[in-house]
Design a protein that fits this description.
Number of strands: 3
Oligomer: single chain
Shape: globular
Strand order of the largest sheet: 2-1-3
Number of helices: 1
Distance between the termini: 30 Å
């Protein structure tokens, strides 16, 4: 699979902006992965360290390991 192809091509992509150790990182991610990433990140880091930015996400690199945020949460088992 190409690194710039969504694991869920039927879902819209969003623009994620992550502020990590003084560096802003911008990624594209499908809606489901982005939602789970935001929830996970906010539960472990600063609440405002990740944001979804309105607008086109084309041209951005995909969220690293995006597909892992699409799998069921095994911590609850």
């Amino acid at each position: 699979m190409s690194p710039n192809i969504s694991p869920r091509p039927d879902e819209a992509d969003v623009h994620l902006s992550v502020f990590l150790h003084g560096i802003r990182l911008d990624f594209a991610a499908c809606v489901t992965a982005a939602s789970r990433f935001v929830d996970e990140h906010r539960s472990r880091h600063y609440v405002d360290a990740v944001n979804v930015i309105p607008g086109d996400a084309s041209g951005l690199a995909r969220l690293p390991n995006e597909r892992l945020f699409l799998e069921p949460d095994r911590r609850l088992e």
